[in-house]
Amino acid sequence: MLENGKTTCSCKNTKCQRFGKCIECIKHHKDHNNKLPYCKVPENIDAAKKISGFSHVIW
Predict the structure, then answer these.
(1) 3-state secondary structure of 43
(2) How is residue 15 annotated by DSSP?
(3) Over the stretch 32-50, which tens digit does the pLDDT of each residue have?
(4) Distance of alpha carbon 47 from its chain centroid, rounded?
């Protein structure tokens, strides 16, 4: 299981060399731009939880 709580990476940047490598991604963000990775931004987490509750969404 990944840091996002899923079995797949939720990042939009699928071409990133750290895609799916949570520890490397979090470290990179902390060391280089001091921003949260996509999967750790509160708005993205809340949106994913809300969408997962819709019956018509297929994961």
Answers:
(1) helix
(2) T
(3) 888 888 888 878 777 766 6
(4) 12
